[in-house]
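From the methods appendix. Each design record in this collection lists the tokenized structure first, followed by the designed amino acid sequence. Records were kept in a plain field format so they could be parsed without special tools. The example shown here is representative of the layout used throughout.

RECORD:
FOLD TOKENS (496 positions):
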């Protein structure tokens, strides 16, 4: 992968154990090269340093993590440790419940809230032997595509701390990018896994809606019909391993799918026979020149891997944002705080209050009509997937903008909605409930990462992994590290 910025193609990688992939950590345990306590100590050191630079951690769980690492170390020495992620550090977004640990969700309304039960995804990770190190930052109730909140302040990008990490799973993506453990759990209602993963130069997967249960989830349950839970990692193999563990049926989640457990093959290979549809703008989006250039190069790489690439897309209505997404998303956000008074919302961001107010102004008819148009979005993708096996687009229309901004109002001279118009490729996929992943495919002229989005039919995560693994082999992005991850000792440090 080339970046066009003059930096070395493969800068030196951090030497801390927290920068290893999950598969590398597990291989190291099998060789007895290090212990879970060694890995956790290095990961905590990396988290502390990255938090100083990027503000990615809400609630440290370091003492619990060390205790669990010591237990697993003893079990490994006795030959008793079990679990596909035994001894692997994982971070959890602060919208997702961890029993006995505060879940602020970026909201002053939740300053005293401590859940009594683990979310299903957390229970699954614990059962697999994963070690939870901390809760990571999000925006207020996950309502926007940055991770700035009244509770935690700004979360910054490890590639350039003057820029945003993206969101709302911003702390999750920043931590993985900075070498603070190989796996983070995020949530995605309109792009909240894929946007920060794209901005931070890592792999992020939004599985099919309902494949990963959300219960008991976060209260209030904002973005109820749109939100997915999924992994953020540095490698395709780590994401596949994580999804194998966290996918599953849970009767507490009405949207949960009773799908049998699956194994995902991430062996890289040729893409002969794969029909890839490609759209640089979905027919209506403004996209920056740097993103367009990187997307074009990514298509050439997919073609070189043997895929049949054609310019094609779902033909969506250009008014989809105003007439379909907003009436659904804003109404669901308002419904989540329907019992809250103006006094309850007084500590919230003004923009969050505006979104809630807008949601309250939509009628039930508006919501039902938008839901009908949502069905048309799904139908458009059904027809598209009769012609192609996957669709690829840019992940985000721009690269990371200034930290503290909610978004950008124009792209290369074209005006866009500052909340969601600069991410036109992510939220249509939430409306359809489709699986989608983002993977790094280049850098802009300022050295900031650019993402490629891969979208597949419902429950066809295997094809996403196949395409992503081939691209990863052709352009191995995990060898690129942000400066925040490269201290004089090879650990994470605040070298912005």
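DESIGN:
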């Amino acid at each position: 992968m080339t970046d066009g910025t003059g930096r070395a193609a493969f800068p030196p990688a951090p030497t801390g154990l927290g920068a290893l992939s999950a598969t590398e950590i597990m291989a190291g345990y099998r060789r007895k090269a290090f212990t879970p306590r060694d890995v956790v100590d290095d990961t905590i050191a990396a988290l502390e340093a990255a938090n100083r630079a990027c503000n990615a951690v809400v609630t440290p769980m370091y003492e619990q993590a060390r205790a669990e690492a010591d237990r697993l170390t003893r079990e490994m020495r006795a030959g008793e440790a079990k679990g596909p992620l035994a001894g692997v550090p994982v971070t959890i977004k602060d919208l997702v419940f961890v029993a006995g640990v505060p879940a602020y969700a970026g909201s002053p309304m939740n300053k005293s809230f401590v859940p009594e039960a683990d979310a299903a995804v957390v229970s699954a990770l614990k059962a697999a032997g994963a070690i939870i190190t901390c809760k990571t930052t999000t925006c207020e109730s996950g309502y926007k595509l940055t991770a700035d909140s009244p509770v935690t302040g700004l979360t910054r990008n490890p590639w350039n701390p003057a820029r945003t990490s993206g969101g709302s799973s911003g702390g999750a993506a920043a931590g993985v990018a900075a070498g603070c453990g190989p796996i983070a759990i995020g949530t995605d209602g309109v792009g909240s896994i894929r946007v920060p993963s794209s901005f931070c130069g890592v792999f992020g997967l939004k599985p099919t809606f309902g494949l990963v249960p959300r219960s008991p989830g976060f209260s209030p349950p904002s973005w109820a019909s749109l939100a997915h839970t999924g992994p953020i990692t540095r490698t395709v193999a780590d994401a596949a391993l994580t999804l194998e563990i966290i996918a599953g049926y849970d009767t507490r989640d009405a949207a949960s799918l009773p799908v049998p457990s699956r194994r995902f093959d991430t062996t890289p290979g040729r893409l002969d026979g794969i029909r890839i549809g490609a759209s640089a703008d979905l027919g209506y989006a403004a996209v920056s020149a740097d993103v367009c250039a990187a997307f074009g190069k990514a298509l050439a790489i997919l073609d070189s891997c043997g895929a049949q690439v054609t310019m094609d897309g779902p033909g969506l209505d250009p008014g989809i944002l105003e007439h379909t997404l907003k009436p659904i998303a804003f109404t669901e956000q308002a419904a989540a705080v329907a019992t809250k008074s103006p006094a309850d919302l007084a500590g919230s961001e003004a923009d969050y209050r505006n979104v809630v107010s807008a949601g309250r102004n939509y009628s039930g008819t508006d919501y039902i009509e938008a839901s009908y148009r949502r069905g048309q979005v799904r139908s458009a993708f059904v027809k598209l997937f009769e012609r192609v096996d996957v669709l690829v687009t840019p992940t985000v229309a721009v690269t990371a903008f200034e930290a503290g901004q909610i978004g950008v109002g124009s792209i290369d001279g074209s005006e866009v909605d500052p909340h969601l118009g600069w991410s036109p490729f992510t939220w249509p996929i939430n409306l359809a409930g489709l699986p989608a992943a983002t993977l790094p495919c280049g850098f802009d002229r300022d050295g900031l990462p650019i993402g490629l989005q891969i979208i597949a039919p419902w429950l066809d995560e295997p094809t996403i992994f196949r395409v992503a693994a081939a691209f990863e082999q052709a352009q191995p992005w995990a060898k690129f590290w942000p400066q925040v991850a490269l201290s004089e000792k090879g650990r994470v440090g605040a070298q912005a």
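APPENDIX NOTE: Confidence is low (pLDDT under 50) at residues 4-8, 488-496.
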